[in-house]
Design brief:
The structure is a single chain. The chain contains 16 helices and eleven strands. The protein is of the alpha+beta class. The strands form two sheets. The chain has a six-stranded mixed beta sheet with strand order 1-2-6-3-5-4, with helices on both faces.
Length: 420
Amino acid sequence: MNTVRTSTLANGIRVVTDRMASVQTASVGVWIGAGSRHEPAEINGVAHLLEHMAFKGTHRRTAPEIVREIEDVGGHINAYTSREQTAYYAKVLKDDTRLAFDILSDILQNSVFNPDELARERAVVLQEIGQANDTPDDIVFDCFQSTAFPDQPLGRPVLGTPEIVTGMSRDAIMNYMGRVYGGSQMVLSAVGAIDHDEIVGMATELFGDIAPNSDAASPPGAYRGGDYREKRDLEQVNLVLGFPSFSYHDDDFYAAAVFTSLFGGGMSSRLFQEIREKRGLAYSVYAFSSYYMDCGYFAIYAGTGDSDLAELTPALCDEIQGLSSSLDEYEVKRARNQLKAATLMGLESTSSRCEQIAQQMLIFGRSIPLSEQVELIDAVDVAAVAKVADRIFSGRPTLAAIGPVDSLMSYDDLCDRLAP
């Protein structure tokens, strides 16, 4: 039975809930359809810095009080910024649901952006950027993204750059917040021991004064691809090889998800079995897909030593080229089952479910019933996966690598090796 209910407030905020009668907790949050791709280049990183600053004091609460009030009742509160979304969320016992929403409402409407706190938080974000730059198996993904989507918002780092963050002003943060944090871009989600009508009442009272209008425009993503390699004195090369893929709204979205699982989504996947188990070329190797509202990409990550690098990339090319002609129903079925199991397991956690239905509202404009998701997954057959593989691997590759890269195949040789 579908237990999801939705309502829309007068200011455009969508409220989506899912009651789980068997639990004693509630996960709640506000998801905003704006992230780093909605920033002007000159304030890249403002969405992430704003997310930090929202917790640094309001007209009603100091920064310590925000966290203390939640932790005093045994709950927790957090936030994150991605390229297309920003989220603020909390998990509490059911009797403290109103407190959680009150705090979320407070930080989203009454933050003071104290200049001293801003100076401290800039320093914290600079440390975060420095930590990422010192972690090659982390920063290589940003290098891949900027190479796949050069000179455009989708290619810029979510954290921003040290130069821009250092000069980020209070006015820039407040102006960005005023521009994109409108009701039309917000989804309020609640899952667990909750009542939909009560949540709507809270939302109307606590969030009803938020202005409806929002300007979260972003230029269309344009995948271009290319080559990035950075020589560092490391034990391993961290490598990402990717191709243009699909948006959330593509007809092949579910087939692409099955394909990703089959090719590199687990220990039984082709990549893990061939690259690690049979050939011992990498300790960590997997495939993943990133979807956006208007585009996406499919990529492979591998970490390998200098002595195996020359063999790794040709081996990856062999797996890519031989895929669509060697698929069988057994492995497609296994990938479907893995995807369905992951979807079902996500329903057991109030936090995961809260995020899932909020994102569905932002992306698709509705909550997608589990039965519909399962039906779409079950409809993926060998032909659908082969079609997806052909669509993806016909695109221009993107290669990003950090480490001892001297023996890495040249980009031109890679393109030649992958040519039909």
